[in-house]
């Protein structure tokens, strides 16, 4: 599982990891937030209404679920049952703690920014969230950053190639020896 504050570059790093490790797949999270421009239901997220999400929680269909920045997010059990050499979960801190309880053998990676200022610049620079959403994400960041020591591996995303190289090293047993060539 990979976690870290919003805007730290988890998605970019995971896309790079998936390119270098074709046997690894990304778990598609469910959310109640509205799709961003270009996002596709079932590929980027499973977009659910509040009612659909609540029903699935009641049925026990989630490995983990949490509320973050005013929306609900979760990992459906069905995502972990897909055939793959490895499945990456991109989740928030609350979800990571739940997964740690449910799947204690999972590799746990925390992606950290080089600084809080850098994180704020990234959130504002991606221009996909409203000012209120950015403020909520920045309010949550100190708590998330304080929890990084809970994770077995911390990757600082200061330089994309270096951070990606660290992730590929972690996944080398799944990816195979050729994946380490980052050229």
Total DSSP helices: 8
Strand order of the largest sheet: 4-3-6-5
Oligomer: single chain
Largest sheet data: 4 strands, mixed
Arithmetic mean pLDDT: 88
- Tell me the radius of gyration: 16 Å
Name the overall outline: globular
Quick overview:
By secondary structure, the chain is of the alpha/beta class. Helices cover 42% and strands 18% of the residues.
Structure, described:
There is one protein chain. The longest helix has 16 residues, at 131-146. It is built from 8 helices and 9 strands. The strands form 3 sheets. It has a 4-stranded mixed beta sheet with strand order 4-3-6-5. The chain has a 3-stranded parallel beta sheet with strand order 1-8-9, covered by helices on one side. The chain has helices at 10-20, 50-58, 77-80, 93-102, 116-126, 131-146, 160-170, 172-175; strands at residues 2-3, 24-26, 30-31, 46-47, 62-68, 71-76, 86-88, 109-112, 153-156. The protein is 42% helix and 18% strand. The model is unreliable at 179-183 (pLDDT under 50). Helix 1 packs across helix 7 and helix 5 runs antiparallel to helix 6. With 183 residues, the protein is α/β, with parallel strands linked by helices.
Any key phrases for this structure?
single chain; 183 residues; alpha/beta; 4-stranded mixed sheet; 3-stranded parallel sheet; 8 helices; globular; disordered C terminus
């Amino acid at each position: 599982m990979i976690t870290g504050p919003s805007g730290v570059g988890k998605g970019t790093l995971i896309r790079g990891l998936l390119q270098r490790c074709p046997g690894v797949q990304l778990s598609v999270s469910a959310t109640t937030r509205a799709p961003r421009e270009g996002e596709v239901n079932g590929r980027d997220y499973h977009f659910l209404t509040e009612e659909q999400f609540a029903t699935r929680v009641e049925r026990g269909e989630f490995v983990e679920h949490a509320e973050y920045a005013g929306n609900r997010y979760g990992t459906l059990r069905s995502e972990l049952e897909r055939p793959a050499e490895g499945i990456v979960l991109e989740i928030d801190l609350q979800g990571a703690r739940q997964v740690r309880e449910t799947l204690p053998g999972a590799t746990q990676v925390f992606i950290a920014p080089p600084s809080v200022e850098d994180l704020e610049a990234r959130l504002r620079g991606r221009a996909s969230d409203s000012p209120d959403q950015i403020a909520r994400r920045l309010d949550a960041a100190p708590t998330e950053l304080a929890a990084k020591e809970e994770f077995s591996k911390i990757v600082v995303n200061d330089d994309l190639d270096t951070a990606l190289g660290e992730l590929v090293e972690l996944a080398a047993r799944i990816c195979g020896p050729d994946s380490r060539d980052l050229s």
